[in-house]
Design brief:
Blueprint lengths: L2 H5 L7 E2 L6 E4 L2 E4 L8 E2 L3 H12 L4 E3 L2 E3 L5 E3 L7 E6 L3 E2 L19 H18 L4 H6 L3 E5 L1 H9 L5 E8 L2 E8 L3 E5 L1 H10 L12 E3 L8 E3 L6
Family: Belongs to the CRISPR-associated protein Cas6/Cse3/CasE family.
Organism: Sporocytophaga myxococcoides
GO molecular function, one term: hydrolase activity, acting on ester bonds
């Protein structure tokens, strides 16, 4: 039996991006033309990251659909200094409605400019932070300031070019397939720095542990803030 499966039986405080590389959409789906692709993985638990990396590099290759990948290198991003106001970009779609909730419509469009959009993300974020047991009840109660303000220029440009920033995506969870609406757009989050750090590490919205809701700092150059990732041996 895998010791790490026992150590992290229900752990879900992690987030990851889609594979980043040169792609082209074809009749059979997404085709990669890059010799190398990148996966961004994040968690506030350093040990969990090390367990994940060790397990990944024990595999001679990883098969995703028809794509065969060979793990090569791991780099660590420098920790950003997060304040009460942070401009983020979405590097994976943001899901704001839980399809498992009875009576919900996970494909419903809700404008990011509305208070409802922020309120729904606030509730899901506080629920996840409380469930993580990394914060006291007093801290959770103090995190009442939470507002998402989308980049209006970006949304205007998207509409003018008749492009979409909100699409329907499939998600599989507990042997069930759901369809959810995911949003991808830049926004400014006004919140306590501890909340900012949590969503940066763990993602924002529902199904972060499925690869949704991963964020990055806007206008950041990842090539200027990486160092080799050193894994500690057991």
């Amino acid at each position: 039996m895998d010791r790490h499966r026992i150590e992290f039986p229900d752990f879900d405080l992690y987030n990851f991006s889609g594979l980043k590389g040169q792609t082209k959409v074809g009749k059979e789906g997404l085709h990669f033309y890059s010799n190398k692709v990148t996966l961004v993985f994040s968690s506030p638990n350093e040990h969990y990251i090390e367990v994940f990396v060790r397990a990944l590099f024990k595999m001679p290759q990883v098969e995703i659909g028809k794509l065969l990948l060979v793990p090569l290198t791991v780099e660590r991003e420098a920790e950003p200094q997060l304040g009460n106001e942070v401009k983020f970009i979405c590097i994976s779609p943001l899901v704001i409605i839980n399809p498992e909730e009875k009576g919900s419509d996970p494909k419903k469009f809700i404008s990011p400019s509305t208070d409802m959009f922020s309120d729904m993300l606030y509730e899901s974020t506080m629920s996840r932070m409380e469930k993580s047991k990394r914060f006291t009840p007093e801290e959770i109660a103090s995190f009442y300031k939470f507002q998402i303000v989308p980049d209006k220029d970006y949304l205007t440009k998207i509409r003018e070019e008749e492009k979409k920033f909100a699409r329907i995506f499939p998600v599989f969870h507990k042997a069930e397939k759901y369809e959810v609406r995911g949003y991808t757009f830049p926004f400014t989050l006004y919140a306590d720095p501890k909340v900012q750090q949590f969503v940066f590490d763990c993602g924002l919205g529902f199904y972060a542990f499925k690869g949704f809701g991963m964020l990055d700092i806007a206008n950041a150059d990842p090539n200027q803030r990486t160092t080799p990732f050193i894994v500690n041996n057991d």
